[in-house]
Amino acid sequence: MKKIPYLIKNVDLAPAGRQRTAWAAREMPVVGSLRKNYSRTKPFQGLRISCCLHITSETANLVIALKEAGAEVALAASNPLSTQDEVAAHLVRDHSISVFGLKGENERTYYTGIRALIERQPHLLVDDGADLIATVHRYKSLAGQILGATEETTTGVIRLTNLAQKKLLLFPVVAVNNADTKHLFDNRYGTGQSTVDGLLRATNILLAGKVAVICGYGWCGRGIAMRLKGMGARVIVTEVNPLRALEAVMDGYAVMPVKAAATVADLFITATGNTTVLSWETIRLMKDGAILANAGHFNVEIDLATLSKKALQKTRVRPYLDEYLLPGKRRVFVLGEGRLVNLACAEGHPAAVMDMSFANQFLSLKFLKENHPLSARVYPVPPEIDQAVATLKLKSMGVQVDRLSHIQKEYLHSWHLGT
Ligand SMILES: NC(=O)c1ccc[n+]([C@@H]2O[C@H](COP(=O)([O-])OP(=O)(O)OC[C@H]3O[C@@H](n4cnc5c(N)ncnc54)[C@H](O)[C@@H]3O)[C@@H](O)[C@H]2O)c1
Question: Predicted confidence band at 144 (pLDDT cuts at 50, 70, 90)?
């Protein structure tokens, strides 16, 4: 094995990680085709790419593809609870990729990883939640040779847009999250399915007949609500945006303020990207035995700090399931320490959706390299990339679609043909 820096649980876990990564690859034909095509032309030759992503088997397929396309790649965890230790071992041992991340790590090792990504003086960054990019901005001298970055998730795009609006952004960033082939599928179907998966693995409760509250009817919230409804839960939505609330009503859900929902529900899932959505004032209204989980990016949506202070006792009753005993002998249960429930308690999104998200990542990095220098703004994913990813995905699924005829193209470009 080549000598490289890394900080992982145990390199001997590599064989299990290899199998897991190969299993995910079967569902990732688009990333597979990019890997095959660009391993010949090597568009990233001579470039160091630092990735701060969930260390999962899907991410492994992306970083291997980047490496084969010529890049020197390093990877650090974007969440202390999402790392698959065997996948980290596989990347280190079998691909000589520097990896920093251990499942259940603390904040110190988390930032050791992020610093290691920066100290290798990368040319391109890939971020999920913007902790890596924000750290570079705290120590501006580190930005040096960075050509640009990509951002995977809604919360990261919000942070970086705020940075750009304050005119503080140091390099261009492509908002991969905002590609249609990303958020319409990953956030909706990916989070929808894997959140239910995390909930079931952690609790094994029957969903049929339960009253479930979804806080936030964005792309993730819509997916979670849809899947819970399909499993027989009665779903209530809480929102702050009147348009989204109206959409939830017309999709057939009950909509009400969170404090009203608190008194009647069995189960609460936050997916807002906002802070203190389940505040102590809300939690104290809940029924005995209420279950709380978060699917939003950071562990700020449930006010765990106040809950911990008010609780008389906290007991781990199953893996990633904590019971808080409250005054008056009521109990609430919190999943995955309030972190992304689908990654903390299950395996994150299915590979088939990450295939599209990561194809966007790969092609957006190529776009940044080929169009350097770009001014320091947040850019959308170019529509050609979105179209290419959708086309490749359909092809891999064996789905064919119609093409516009000449007459139809002309009609769509005319103004004088009407009644
Ligand atoms: N778990 C995952 O794997 C995963 C995947 C993708 C995105 N995310 C994260 O999930 C979060 C949501 O992402 P999204 O793409 O659905 O965002 P979105 O912007 O489409 O939706 C968020 C919704 O929450 C609503 N909201 C904000 N504050 C609220 C409050 N106090 N109460 C009720 N509703 C409120 C907003 O009005 C909006 O409709 C982000 O943090 C994102 O980064 C997680």
Answer: confident
Candidate of 52, 59, 82, 154 to mutate for ligand 1, largest count of ligand atoms within 8 Å of Cβ: 154
- CA 339, 344, 346: angle at the middle one, nearest 5? 140
**Range of 217's domain?**
191-344
C-alpha 273 – ligand 1 centre gap (Å) = 4
Q: How far is the CA of 380 from the centre of ligand 1 (A)?
A: 19
- Residue-level pLDDT at 126: 98
Ligand 1 atom closest to the CA of 154, numbered from 1: 43
Who lines ligand 1 at CB under 6 A?
A: 153-155, 183, 187, 191, 215-221, 238-241, 244, 271-274, 277, 295-297, 340, 342, 349
Q: Is the domain of 230 the same as that of 124?
A: no
CA distance linking residue 128 with residue 79, whole number of Å: 9
Per cent of the chain over pLDDT 90 is 97
Domain-embedded: residue 6? no
Torsion of CA 311, 313, 314, 316, to 10 degrees: -150
- CATH at 306: 3.40.50.720
Residue 417 has a pLDDT of: 87
The reply to whether 116 and 243 lie within a common domain is no
Does residue 405 lie in a domain region?
A: no
Q: pLDDT by residue (tens digit) across 112-138?
A: 999 999 999 999 999 999 999 999 999
Listed residue (386, 379, 374, 32) closest to 180, CA to CA: 386
> Is residue 107 scored above 80 in pLDDT?
yes
The encoded tokens of residue 249 equal 């009503």
Taking the centre of ligand 1 as the mean of its atom positions, its distance from the CA of residue 117, in whole angstroms, is 28
pTM: 0.97
Cis bond before residue 373 (omega within 30° of 0): yes
If asked whether residues 34 and 88 sit together in one domain, one would say yes
Q: How far does residue 268's CA lie from ligand 1's centre (Å)?
A: 14
Pocket test for ligand 1, best of 53, 176, 272 (most atoms within 8 A of CB): 272
Do 276 and 298 touch, CB atoms closer than 8 A?
no
Q: Number of folded domains in the chain?
A: 2
pLDDT at 2 over 80: no
